[in-house]
């Protein structure tokens, strides 16, 4: 091992710590998205040597209106073992604290040694947007031109970045329940964005709609959605939280990242009583069709396997950089 840094391979050595700025500088959609796509397919194969990933266990933080989610994942064939600890909150209007705060731990599956501790916020933002981008690529109509984003927080930004970098839209519209939030968002991104005064104005005629709000009540109604549009529904990740109304859920063909996750955690799925037609991984594996011409909803809850491949990619890039020094 002479000439090589041993800090990140030696059992008993402290884990490397890779924090937000560095994670952001090491993670890029062009490399991340193909890994996510492969991982979603492996997850849906339900082959335990590919992915073991239980539904997230959640501990309520009642006093703070939040939850701690534990998200362990093991990919035996890839030698990847990780867990994310994520706290997410239903913050009051005046709060300046983030809605999601996360840490990812990457371990050596043979020794149990912890290889790395990483900031999980950038990973969560980027892998969630990456999964939604995959859903749009698979399920939107060819030639989609108009993208609407509802909500203008962290996830809105990562979705804007992933969708404008990886797909081509002629128009991007945003809506926020507070107009100043939408205006601030527009100033923070590099491309042209139209601020809309209502959800209806934002989504009428849109080909792809991303819902990334903290709302616990439906904000998007089926009657405003163009037939054949694709909706990536990212917020509302508790069994009693909603972003989409019943008419949209019933009209659409519903896809999810994890069927079990959606049935345990998605208010939009549970309370509307609809069936999840397929996982994204089923479409990737060619087991279920992509109904591009129909109205489709991708219900995203977020999966440990997405964090695992993102964290592993960060670690690989970090090692490559460290070896070059
Ligand atoms: N599916 C997944 O994998 C993930 C889902 N999430 C969820 O996505 C949602 C957004 O997360 P972040 O962007 O990090 O949060 P954020 O706090 O940065 O942004 C939330 C946005 O929702 C808006 N908002 C707040 N209350 C609202 C209401 N009552 N009605 C409409 N809009 C409202 C805020 O103004 C803001 O624009 C949260 O529900 C979060 O739990 C977050 C991470 C991963
Ligand atoms: O997958 C994830 O990290 C989360 N899903 C909902 C809130 C955080």
TrEMBL record:
It catalyses: (S)-cystathionine ketimine + NADH + 2 H(+) = (3R,5S)-2,3,5,6,7-pentahydro-1,4-thiazepine-3,5-dicarboxylate + NAD(+); L-proline + NAD(+) = 1-pyrroline-2-carboxylate + NADH + H(+); (3R)-1,4-thiomorpholine-3-carboxylate + NADP(+) = 3,4-dehydrothiomorpholine-3-carboxylate + NADPH + 2 H(+); (R)-lanthionine ketimine + NADPH + 2 H(+) = (3R,5R)-1,4-thiomorpholine-3,5-dicarboxylate + NADP(+). GO terms for molecular function: pyrroline-2-carboxylate reductase activity; thiomorpholine-carboxylate dehydrogenase activity; thyroid hormone binding. Its EC number is 1.5.1.1, 1.5.1.25. It holds the Pfam family OCD_Mu_crystall. It is an enzyme of class 1 (oxidoreductase). GO terms for biological process: thyroid hormone metabolic process. It comes from the Eukaryota. GO terms for cellular component: cytoplasm. Belongs to the ornithine cyclodeaminase/mu-crystallin family. Homodimer. Binds the thyroid hormone triiodothyronine (T3); T3 binding inhibits enzymatic activity. This is Ketimine reductase mu-crystallin. The gene is crym.
């Amino acid at each position: 091992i002479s000439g090589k840094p041993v800090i990140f391979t030696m059992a008993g050595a402290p884990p490397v710590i890779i924090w937000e700025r560095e994670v952001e500088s090491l993670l890029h959609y062009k490399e991340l998205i193909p890994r996510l796509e492969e991982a979603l397919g492996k997850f849906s194969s339900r082959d335990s040597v590919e992915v073991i990933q239980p539904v997230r266990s959640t501990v309520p933080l009642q006093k703070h209106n939040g939850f701690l989610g534990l998200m362990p994942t093991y990919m035996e064939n890839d030698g990847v073992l990780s867990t994310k600890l994520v706290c997410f909150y239903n913050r009051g209007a005046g709060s300046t604290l983030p809605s999601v705060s996360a840490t990812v731990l990457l371990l050596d599956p043979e020794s149990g040694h912890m290889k790395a501790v990483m900031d999980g916020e950038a990973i969560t933002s980027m892998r969630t947007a990456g999964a939604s981008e995959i859903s749009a690529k698979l399920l939107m109509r060819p030639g989609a031109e108009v993208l609407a984003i509802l909500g203008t927080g962290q996830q809105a930004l990562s979705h804007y970045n992933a969708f404008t970098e990886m797909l081509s839209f002629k128009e991007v519209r945003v809506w926020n329940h507070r107009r100043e939030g939408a205006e601030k968002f527009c100033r923070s991104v590099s491309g042209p964005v139209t601020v809309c005064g209502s959800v209806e104005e934002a989504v009428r005629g849109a080909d792809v709609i991303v819902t990334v709000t903290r709302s616990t009540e439906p904000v998007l109604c089926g009657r405003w959605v163009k037939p054949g549009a694709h909706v990536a529904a990212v917020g509302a990740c508790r069994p009693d939280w909603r972003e989409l109304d019943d008419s949209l859920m019933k009209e659409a063909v519903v896809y999810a990242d994890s069927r079990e996750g959606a049935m345990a955690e998605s208010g939009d799925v549970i309370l509307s009583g609809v069936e999840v037609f397929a996982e994204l991984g089923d479409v990737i594996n060619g087991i279920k069709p992509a109904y591009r011409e129909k109205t489709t909803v991708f219900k995203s809850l977020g999966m440990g396997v997405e964090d695992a491949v993102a964290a592993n990619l960060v670690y690989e890039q970090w090692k490559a950089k460290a070896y070059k020094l």
